[in-house]
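Friendly challenge for the regulars: who can give me the structure tokens for this chain first? No prize, just bragging rights.
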Amino acid sequence: MSVITISRGSFSGGKMLAECLAQRLRYRCIDRDVIVERAAACGVSQEELRDALEKPPGFLDRFSHRKYLYLALIQAALAEEIRTGRAIYHGLAGHLLLKGRPQILRTRIIAPLEFRIRMAQDRLKFNRAEAVAYIQKMDQQRRKWTQFLYGVDWGDPSLYDIVINLDHIDIEQACRVIAGLARERCFEFTPDCQAAMDDLALASRVRANLALDPATAHLEFEVDAFRGKVTIEGRLGNLDEIGEVRRVASVSPGVAELDLDALAPNIHA
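First reply, four minutes later:
Bragging rights claimed.
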């Protein structure tokens, strides 16, 4: 029961590949809009969340803490959505939001420029010059976005388990290759893998709750979980805030134990 993430440039065939895989594997197909809608249920506007996922760094440079909030909510929504496996996510940065999870099959698909131009012309009714300009603009924004938020190059092949170039194979062939990998044992949801995904969902949920609660919303944390034990790391304004962190985190469903030893007051606060 794998989870597959698909990274792609605009009009590179990512949606078509996701839909083909969903049909072949009988997986759920999840796009950015599903995640945004789920994250927005916490009280943040869908427009702001979409801007955080799409616009270049300048939008968030002015609101650095908002960046933390948006990503916390989006990661929590994505982790919960794919927690039980058998899912394909073809939105921006899924492989980074779920980084470090061995049961994720991280896929990147690239396509020749002419393929992308034809797709843009067909869908958006652009002329050739408009299609080229649009593709270049979107690629540049996505490259800046991933560099700004994660410090990585969007096109670095080491971020992915497999990179497929549609210059040499078509969508159907790509679908067969990736489906075959997804069926390999290394990407199956064993009980240990399911436990790891539950841990990710729990840690993401606690982090989102801390980002939303008025008493802790001004703080930023790294949160990890292992079998119900949640570890929270971060800087506090003062030691009294530990009690607030404990209060917010302890009521999150699934928390069996809290480790707050890594919390420390900010000496510069």
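Strands lie at 3-8, 28-30, 87-89, 104-110, 162-165, 221-226, 229-236, 257-259, 263-265. The chain has a mean pLDDT of 87. Your move, everyone else.
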